[in-house]
Write a structure and sequence with these properties.
The chain is mainly alpha-helical and 353 residues long. The protein has helices spanning 2-28, 50-64, 73-92, 97-113, 133-153, 160-178, 182-202, 211-232, 245-252, 254-269, 282-287, 293-313, 319-352, and strands at 32-33, 45-46.
């Protein structure tokens, strides 16, 4: 437990002390995120907050992880560096989607083939258990890339991606601690410490954004924790063993996962690229209801926590049933937001006429 607390404190202190310097450098070098048509902020805000998050996470993990029980850590750190370089380059000089995707594929390749971060079973979903090696590799790489971008896509309002990242990392980290997977708990709580420090500067009025440097790294770590959570449970017995583990993992990451699934589906149905930007994200729906960034973040955080409690309590339902229930409730939540948005627009049109 001492190592986990120390990993949290170390990441927190490094990130907390690094962010002010990064803000000053960003201002001097004119590295701002300028407001635009899709932006939810009105002022120019320094980006590259992910530099501080990366510094805190990488130092804390390297310093406190027990290498003798985590021989794959070097490969995980390599994937961190790849994602960090992609994010930093994109924050300074925007990359094409193709180049970002290739970098993400490379990071996922290292994790799957060298760090053994793989999904090897569907745990009874559609009656499928263990899957062939080729299918395992393809599914694992797809999942990693999807989750990296899922967290990146919710990084649209102050505090949201950091808050959701904390909820996810604390949930996984606490379970790994109870299950005695200390090396994974260290990774989770190092991320938690860095994000808690970052949020001091990111809540409204935001002094800095994490940018792709931060959101891609947070997404990568969440992907690693999710897949390890699923795989560790494969041979686990006892009170800590999770039933319906894929559905529970998705429930823990419901906000980024469902929002990505939803916006990708909408874009494809409209004949657009799933990566084409728009204002259809759940946080946009809340902002359009005249909610502040802080209130929208709190609502989505409470919703994510509620889903976490639900999937843990209802894990006996089976993976497919629990997954369908989770997605159904998330869809209902979104429909309610859309209805409220339409009612608001009708009210405004009647008032203006």
């Amino acid at each position: 437990m001492n190592i986990i607390i120390l990993s949290f404190i170390t990441a927190f202190l490094i990130t907390f002390s690094a962010i002010p310097s990064i803000i000053n450098i960003a201002r001097v070098k004119n590295l701002f995120d300028e407001p635009g048509d899709r932006a939810s902020h009105k002022d120019s805000v320094p980006t590259l907050g992910g530099l501080g998050i990366f510094a805190g996470v990488i130092f804390s993990i390297t310093f406190w992880t027990p290498f003798q029980v985590f021989s794959d850590l070097q490969y995980i750190l390599c994937s961190f560096i790849i994602i960090f370089l992609i994010g930093a380059k994109d924050d300074i000089v925007p990359l094409t989607p193709a180049k970002k995707f290739l970098g993400e594929v490379f990071a996922a390749f290292i994790l799957v083939f060298k760090a053994d971060v793989k999904i090897t079973s569907l745990y009874g979903i559609f009656g499928i258990g263990d899957i062939p090696e080729v299918a395992s590799i393809m599914l694992s790489m797809f999942t990693i890339i999807l989750l990296i971008n899922a967290v990146n896509l919710i990084d649209g309002i102050n505090g949201l991606s950091g808050t959701i990242g904390i909820i996810i990392s604390v949930t996984f980290g606490y379970w790994f601690y109870l299950a005695n997977y200390i090396e994974l708990a260290v990774i989770a709580f190092a991320l938690t410490g860095a994000l808690v420090a970052f949020l001091k500067y990111n809540y409204t009025p935001a002094k800095i954004f994490m940018g792709d440097t931060g959101s891609l790294l947070v997404g990568l770590i969440c992907a690693i924790l999710s897949i390890k959570f699923i795989e560790v449970n494969k041979g686990l017995v006892g009170p800590l063993a999770i039933k319906s583990v894929p559905a529970v993992a998705i429930g823990i990451m419901i906000i980024p996962c469902f929002d990505t699934l939803r916006v990708f589906t909408i874009r494809i149905l409209k004949g657009k690229s799933p990566f084409s930007p728009d204002r259809n994200h759940i946080h946009h729906l809340l902002i359009d209801l005249n909610l502040s960034h802080t209130m929208a973040t709190i609502i989505l955080a409470i919703a994510n926590i509620g889903f976490i409690f639900m999937v843990f309590k209802l894990q006996f339902l089976g993976s497919l049933n629990l997954l369908l229930l989770t997605l159904g409730i998330a869809t209902l939540f979104t429909i309610i937001l859309l209805y409220l948005g339409r009612q608001k627009k009708l009210s405004q049109s009647k008032t203006s006429s």
